[in-house]
Amino acid sequence: MYVLTGLMKDKKKNAQKVRSDFWVFSLDTREWRRVYENDHDDQAYWQVMRNIEPCPRYAHQLVYNPITKVRAQG
Question: What band does 60 get if pLDDT is binned at 50, 70 and 90?
Fold first, then answer.
């Protein structure tokens, strides 16, 4: 299972932080492994990087079935 994150909320501080993380969950070992992390929150940084790496996503979903090679977005 693959998971992308984009917005972290701290309820105690009533604050939000931009974050771009990519995680993989192994069904065999039942463990999470972080593959990528980027916590830049500067809009100018993401403008420069827009063609190099995906920017953080908010309220976005993607499901992919490798057997049928079908994806669905929400």
Answer: low
